[in-house]
């Protein structure tokens, strides 16, 4: 509740602001975007005058109160605030209305406080005012099966699945983005240029890369983005050796495996059936190569390639029998290096999903996942409560495109494997999910995917559910395009016509697409529009934001981001936008507000 005094302060402040705006319009001292901003950002103006107690400037102690009470920031002292403002002042503002000088801002902040325009710039251009926490804050002491894990697919490929180059560069880029599962296909090499073992997409026309080059790059960049465990191949003292002499009954936690590299694969064949093991342990499951052979064969036929084997079941984890006699690693020793055991899936899907005494990993193609979710949804979720489910792209995706990852997450799949070089909307969803939890590559699954109810029931995504929360999203303004793009990038003869799409990706009942009005002929759009999203499963919902320039033929892309709804910070937030590939623009940002309301229908 506002006091009568605070109401009066806000009212007086509004009168002063409207009077100032009117006078400046008459004097032609404001351009169109500044007039729009002054006339429309009323709740920002209200917050400013509430905390400045109706004054023209917000002093230090008032700004501190605003940050704590309105924004919910965990800062306690003026010294903490000084550090935040100090970092902000080092960034040259690109605001359309003030062109704030860092030196002037610090002087103003230290003396009379922030003006309304300074206040807007502080909210919009302050990197500390982002929509998500930038630190790890989930419980990291649960078993690995309780987390979604950022997973790559054929991580060494630079392009398509059939003819592109193999390289360590995509691996490095993936590690820098926080990917925690790197897949390599290891094959014996007969080339004089590559001694020993090569990394290559088996039985395709892709060019190989020496395994040593990939492993050296992995060792160097494994923990450049995240300290949490990386699932890959052998690295001396970095390699985690499971203490158990046999397969585990529960996976270790990410916290216990910090800065460790673990192996996720199937045991050698001779440990499963008594036969001789294959020559090279395959970190990304050789079986996927053989079992996807049937899907790939049609595409490869046009390239007149040979030596493609068909397989009876695309997600069985078979083994390569070529050169079996060249056993380079003792199977018993190799078995003890494996932390996440893959297993050969036999029998019906129901049989494969049965919960055994020892934890394991099962791999399914996106096609098999869809079928399993339709016919064995409850069994899928029960399986992923203790075990790990990996989902990989179907073989027809020869251009390295990706499937929608949401179905995998909805049924608890921890490792939804993606072609990180295959840019598109699906990859943006993946990037959005793993911006959660400080971007460490591990996101704790919601409790309803981890625990069963007292009556042994599991979460059913198909049932009708009540609304849990209402997310209110307000889009105020955008800025930065004039710095990051040329004057003719969007329109040759006039400024762009921007609009913003705001979408929820979630369960069917939550998913919706909305958009703002188009703001014509301005690099500095002010929308001031609010949207409401009733959410039944907010824990798994993603907020997708995209800005476009309206055009007669085809609207031009102007930036995007995707954010996990459950991680959104309350209040006025600066939302940086990214390009199509997910690289953050240097200057382009939206000023938005996020607000949650609970319902009584719980």
UniProtKB/TrEMBL annotation:
Q: Which GO biological-process labels does this protein carry?
A: lipid catabolic process; response to stress; signal transduction
* Cited Pfam families: C2, PI-PLC-X, PI-PLC-Y
Q: Which residues form the C2 domain?
A: 451-579
**What catalytic activity does the UniProt entry give for this protein?**
a 1,2-diacyl-sn-glycero-3-phospho-(1D-myo-inositol-4,5-bisphosphate) + H2O = 1D-myo-inositol 1,4,5-trisphosphate + a 1,2-diacyl-sn-glycerol + H(+)
Q: Which cofactor does it need?
A: Ca(2+)
List its EC numbers. 3.1.4.11
- This protein's source sits in the domain of life called Eukaryota
Q: How does it sit in the membrane?
A: Peripheral membrane protein
- The name on file for this protein is Phosphoinositide phospholipase C
